Fold these 2 entries.
Entry 1:
Amino acid sequence: MPPRCIIRGVKNDILIRNNVQIGGRGTQPMLLAHGFGCDQNMWRFIAPAFADDYRLVLFDYVGSGKSDVTAWDPERYSTLDGYAQDVVEICRALDLHDVVFVGHSVSSMVGVLAAKQEPSRFAKLIMIGPSPRYLNDGDYVGGFEREDIEGLLALMDKNFIGWASYLAPVVMKNPERPELGAELEESFCSTDPKIQRRFAETTFFADNRHDLAGVTVPSLIMQCSEDAIAPVEVGNYLHRTLPVSTLRMLKATGHCPHVSHPDETIAVMKAYLADGSAAR
Amino acid sequence: MDPLLDSAPCGFVSFADDGTILDLNRTLADLLGYPRVELAGWHLQKMLPPGGRIFFQTHVFPILKMHGTANELFFTVRTKSGTDLPMLMNAVRRERDGVFVSDCVLMRMTQREQFEAALLEARRAADRGNVAKAKFLSMMSHDLRAPLTAIMGYAGLLAGGAYGPTTGEVQGALERIRTACEMLDRMIADILTFAQIESGKVDVRMMPVALEEAFARAESLVRPRAESAQLTLALEPSGATVSADPDKLQQVLLNLLTNAIKFTPAGGRVSVSAETAADRVRIHVRDTGVGIDAGSLERVFIPFEQVDGRKSDGVGLGLAISRELVEGMGGTLTVESVVGQGSVFTVELRKS
């Protein structure tokens, strides 16, 4: 059993909290926000392609990667607004302006919320596999029913919550074999299982459709063909609803084109960024 | 496909990075209820339930791409008739003929899945029970405190002559009421602290704490008790500074010292000392008391347990609370003891 007291007063700085990593040789900031299930490592296949022209800012959400898990606050992170607040706080801490925000999956909506809060900081939103609502709702096709998400949560329980989170702390306390704990942690894209489960609920039960109309920052919607998580209907819905948006269909299938098809992802992003005219 | 692999008693499937099924064995095709020709060229997603698709995209695929292997993953596949089958999956991603392919073995685990589900449910029920207990304890302690405060207050007023003069006999009775109330109040405070720890509501504020000051404060609080128990109390000076929450450390030292005094017969000795080893500091609280037999040593830290021969007037929470607090400060609390000779409780903390 890990200690149950909450340690405060340790360095709770925003940049440490979110394990912010800065790279690149350019001046305009490109803020890369990972999606649900992994951490900033997901960007390693495309980030180098932007290193010459941008100041790259990578981070982990609280509970993912090497973030400070003691900063986890179930109330704050019970909606995507809490995650958007993290993004805004990172921008403020580094005094970022003219930001190209690149969000994968759920982070696309985190970007929308952050851009609504402080539109002046953001130049463009690039959304990879975005969805404002994963559940079907009347005429709206999100792709999933509630019981589908419950199936996902059950799988997560069985894989991580069940074993890693209940057993890993015991293993990690085992001083003779410290490598066991480290291995478990490393092999799951380093995420905190209990927080990830909450992140899954926050993500897949969220409804941010009403947040779209107010977005003034130009956006690129990168829609994968045969995306198992965000169907084509969702990409079209976003394009119709987001005021200044461009929709690009990728040949890439799946939900992580920046991992599975980095070349195409880089090309589409570069073309959009090079194009001065914002929409269409 | 190799005939042995084709009919092996486990499912086998190879798929490309985009999820296209390249090959699968007959066992898996039979299990899924499709003719094999129908499945080849399909997307892997089609044999997964919707939640499984999300899990594949957000966990399995990234793990395979980043680590090259994914081991012992729990997974479900959906058969042609719509039944979900629980499976255990091991997969490896490697380059073959110039392209990356993931080879994946799937084992059925229907019974095991049920056992695991039962274990998980039991664990959840236990967690829920703990939360309910902590809530109850915290509510109860608050409710007990209010009347207790009234009793103490009125006893004080009576003793002070607010309702007229009192005889020496009445004063003696009032003194006994006051002592009993104080004891009850300490127990309630223990239960409250314990409930707060249980529900994760204890904040630990870490800072450098000089042991010299911590020892001096603790000594001033327990010296009268040690003297009335006719014990020698010795606090060896220490120049060490530890990383701790000063109030919590104080609470732990008080608990350990009060215990030591309680279980040491008149004429004995209670001492506190500290030693530094590398980046750790060990604080020892020693007594020449009754001791604890080896079989009961760890039980002293279990909440509400009272070890035989150590019956005290408390509720059995002091040491449980102390250990939680020390662990909350990133340290350890351990005990060594010899029956009839005494005990040593050791708090180990990081040096500051």
Entry 2:
Amino acid sequence: MPADLLFEIGCEEIPAKMLARALAELPAQLEAKLAAARLAHGGVRALGTPRRLAVIVKQLADRQPDLHEQVVGPPASAAFAPDGSLTKAGQGFAAKNGVAADALQKQEVAGKKGLYVVAARHVVGGETRALLPELLRELAAGIAWPKSMRWGWSETTFVRPVQWLVALLGGEVVGLQWAGQTAGRKTRGHRFLSPGWIESPGARSDAEHRGGWIELRGAEQYAEALRAAHVVVDPAVRRELIEGELARLAKQTSLRVRDDAALLDEVVNLGEYPVGISGQFDPSYLEVPEEIVVTAMRTHLRYFAMEDASGKIANRFATVMATIVKDPAVVQRGNENVLAARLADAKFFFAEDRKHTFDQWNAKLDGIVFQAKLGDGAKTIGDKVRRIVEIVRALGGASGAVRAAALCKADLASTAVGEFPELQGVMGRHYAKLAGEYDVVAGAIEQHWWPKGQGAVLPQTGEAALVAIADRMDTLVGCFAVGLEPTGSADPFGLRRAAIGIWQILLERGWRDTFGKVFDAAVAALAAQGVKLADRKALDEFFRTRLRGILVDDGVPPQDADAVLAETWQDPVDARARAAECARIPREAREVFKRIANILDDAHAKQYALAEQPAPKQPVEVALWNAFSAAQGKQLEGYGALINVLVEIQPQVAAFFDKGGVMVMDPDPAVRGERLKLLAVIYDRFKRIADFRKLGASS
Amino acid sequence: MYLQDLIFTLSKFWADRGCVIEQPVDVEVGAGTFHPATFLRVLGPEPWNAAFVQFSRRPADGRYGDNPNRAGAYYQFQVGLKPSPLHVQDLYLDSLRTIGIDPASHDIRFVEDDWESPTLGAWGLGWEVWCDGQEVTQFTYFQQAGGIDLLPVTAELTYGIERICMYLQDCGNMYDLKWDKHVTYGQLRKEWEREYSTYHFEQLDPAVAFAQFDTYERQCTRLLDVGLVLPAYEQCMKSSHAFNSLDARGAISVTERQRFIGRVRAMARASAHAYVGARARLGFPLLPAAIGQTAKSAYEAAADAGVNAAALAAARAVVPHVGELPRAG
């Protein structure tokens, strides 16, 4: 009878992000192991809290199916002696597969010559209960933690010390030992709220003598039994509870909790039993830039900011406790004090920074290494800033852009950014405004870091966009010049993201001819500091691949993207327009133009002077030429128009190649030449759109 | 609870659970982890349970006595439990209850915090323990020290006793803490903070401190050459403090920083390696004599593979006898 399996690893507090990742990966890992073990099963899901990882398998078969298989052995000539008796090799094969000598058969085997010995093997399927201990041990030991540790005298490693194991199949304990623990049916409830917890410090404190243990009957009532012990084991349920708590706090305070999806994801995995609580801070702290206040709350304390109906930040916060306490006001006061200390520090940093100038910070950048491999005279952030300025100048940047370039990294030397690195750029904007810089300069200092991720906001002004692409291009050329290009999935310097950022900015700005200029300017600026890009091919290819990725993400079929970018790709606006139009090329046209391209290729048709007018003679030739000329005559500029022509002349092209049409490669060189010229002239008109040889069969 | 009662109570609690109540090291250090009772004792196979208060100097955190929460020096109450008991979290929570922090009234959590000391070549995994959002303890399972893999693993608990006491006394300013019935923390500490902030930020002579650093480094090497491990390690502690002071003074550029850290780490590493060898020669005297000899033999047999491998071999030789060893808890 199939039965449900529960496997729980009790653990000391697992870091929130690692827990989320492990829970996401566990079901697939377990399913793969069950498949490899040939165990049929129903749904698999993972549940967990900081103190436990659990998997539940529904309807797990009680045994493997029996296995009937044919095992191919050595060639018959090697297994049997001339007298028909088994050779040593034949005996070995029979013994290895547990079959009697007379059960061996000679057969032909697909893909091999001659007869082979084949044993029909019947393997009785193993019992699930017997297979599980090893399977579950491997599952537990195979979880990939970014960092793991040892404890006590043990050399087992896990994310944190393992405290208990539960393994129940259909309500019966599965005998299993791992990480110093023996699996049973006992789990621990909430650290402080589980019934039976012995609170007296005088009591013996060995884990087995402490309270908080509950007995589980099986997988079916796992979540329910834990809930009774104040553990919400399903992260989705915890999320709902937290959202409910935040909504309650918002209502209570007539404010809104500011959305922060990343923080919510983390908070879901910070406790076993979430309870919301709110608090306030001295409004005078709102005199420092809001971002500092929010960052101090979220990164250090995991507090949510609150705001009024207009979106203005309030001097309140919402946070989530991991337990129920006797008097929430005590915890609230504690949280408020912690925040007050943090905000006092933030205020101190801000006040300290106000005593410094951008020039002083820029001077410090000469002592901060950006990339050591660039060598003396080029390796510091100060050197990088000088290059960015040069690049922006070379691109004809306005004075605001040049000024922003000169100031763009200065805030890295400020104490506020030292304390809150995620505020780089943001603090630069604030300090620039306070220093009396123009808004466009202040804005560009912040926005030159944009986009900050996939789908994130792009720089909003031309000045910001210029500094952003100059900075990124400098990083890319510099890293490629000293052999730091990404390999495999490793991209420690974020070069892929940087290249994608450049394309996104150029596309959004509609800057068609900037790519080559910024590339050359970056090469020149680095060369002036002694860093030479020996070979630009690899970087060119890197950029083309990223642009291809952007087109494909936009829904362009990969083959079409390749076709579009085959000849020319430096103008991303043009490439995108061509890619979009490619979608309109009908299947028949793709086929026939691909054919034309291949014929021209084979015939090395480049020799035909395109300036010369073709002189069609045969009716199909004349029809095609007339159709092409007529369509071309009335068409306007643009790829859309070009595709219209292509569609319009499609019947004549088809007729040209159809039965009853002509043979291009006529034995008469003169005739052949004329036909090739006709095709070359026509194809030349369209190949600007894409390399038809690479185009997919349909869009 | 007065601050000194907090120290008494924690000391008594951990003494009752098998800890030696050590005393602070009489050299300037940035944290209790530098105390030989932690940094050196975590090495090798000998069990060791100790607790002590350590005056910890963080020159860069000085605020002239003006900041209610930050100071250029403070007291750490540090507990080291080697091997880490399986119920060490329960023990720790009991210690909180004993000093009056009841989890039924407070939001206590273990929040991920991986610890690393680049100067000590040490790292561990664990948490910062929060009480109502306030970090009150650093809780670390030591994995490596001086570049040596640790077996058994030590659990290190570092209580921030000022912060805890501010909680217990419901006091918003560290300097208003009552040390005992009559004396405040400010009366004991504020002048020191003011003077040392001035010293570290304004008056410290970088040339002198740089020269001291160089001297400590030379001494460390020389003392290790003549087999004096403990005095050598003392030079390492001193150099670390000289570095911290210079850093606070702004005398070390960002590029030089890594190099200085590397120099301290080299001293810590050399001291740690020498220490394990010295303990092996003594037969790991904190182990019962027969087991210590077993560990010594295993160490010597593996010595050619290096200190790290030999220390692991010694520990593995002890594992079958773990039941016979003293344990905390």
